Amino acid sequence: MKTFIKKRLLRIAVPFLLWSVLYNLFPWLTGVLGLPQSTMSDVFAYAPIDASQSFSDAIKNIALIPFQFNVYTVPMWYLYMLIGLYLYMPFFSFWVEQATVRQKKIFLMFWSFSLFLPYAYSFFSPNLLGVSAWNTFGTLYYFAGFNGYLLLGNYLVNDVKEWKWCKTIILSLPVFAIGYIATYIGFKTMTANPECSEQEMELFFLYCSPNVALMTLAFFLVIRKVRVKSKRMILMLENITKCGLGIYMIHYFIVGLGYAIADALAIPVFLRIPVTAVIVFVICWVFVSACYKFAPKYSKWIFG
């Protein structure tokens, strides 16, 4: 476990703390520079227009980093979750190594059922399978969550042989389409209601939901068939892999700029999100890659 924690957990824990502090200091820095409070909502999508620029509030948010994220550190939810998975992984991995294929399938079956729980809680009752005001640990709780994706990846890589391209496409396309259509229709239906809550708006693209799991499964089955032979492409993909965590860490700083560029270019509405995503990705990748090139020793701890 010591080796695992040193090689895996520290790689994300140090950048997580560093960037959480930087995000929380940014409102105060905008005040020092004399920028208006509205700057925060221009940079961070979830920040209020009248965001506080006081140093004391920044320090308060920094002190709460071990416990929660806030409107300035929204993307850090992923790091909190990832740290939890890394803490859990040594114990779960021990079972996976001993488990038979049949046992993995049984776990994945229960996990598949758990993916429907968000919809069951929303459309039927919030108190299903033992969940109540005094108990959040229902029947399928211990089979639910992102650990299912861990096991699914292990199962597909080690226990399912790669199919031929024809079979892969024939099976993956409808699986992806079903997941995408369910997400699209559900999201459109929810947002058609002007009184839609934030929880209702996000319901149909929760990561641990059947439709998102179907799209993930289909994408994985296709992407693992890809064989890259170009040395230039291999080097590029290796660089993206190395920079991946750093790209994620800084992207929230750049999202506002990405939207501003897309607006300035008058990108059509239906293309604005994917174009913005590409713009933000490229800017972040260039920045992180340059840091690794010119200061590799420090970048390892700054970006992971």
How is this structure best summarized?
With 304 residues, the protein is an all-alpha fold. Helices cover 71% and strands 0% of the residues.
Describe the fold and architecture.
It is a single chain. The protein is mostly helical and 304 residues long. It is 71% helix and 0% strand. The chain is globular, with a radius of gyration of 22 Å. The model has no long low-confidence stretch (mean pLDDT 93).
Task: Describe the SSE topology.
Layout: H1 2-32, H2 39-43, H3 55-63, H4 77-98, H5 101-114, H6 117-123, H7 147-159, H8 165-191, H9 198-202, H10 210-223, H11 231-264, H12 269-294, H13 296-303
Helix pairs in contact: 1-3, 1-4, 1-11, 1-13, 5-7, 8-10, 11-12, 12-13
| Helical proportion, percent range | over 70%
Q: What structural class results from the helix and strand content? A: mainly alpha
Tell me the number of helical segments per DSSP (H or I, 4 or more residues long). 13
Count of extended strands = 0
Distance between the termini: 19 Å
SS strand fraction: under 5%
- What is the string of SSEs from the N terminus onward? HHHHHHHHHHHHH
Major sheet description: none
Backbone shape: globular
| Radius of gyration, taken over Cα atoms and rounded to an integer in Å | 22 Å
Low-confidence stretches: none
Please state the average pLDDT score.
93
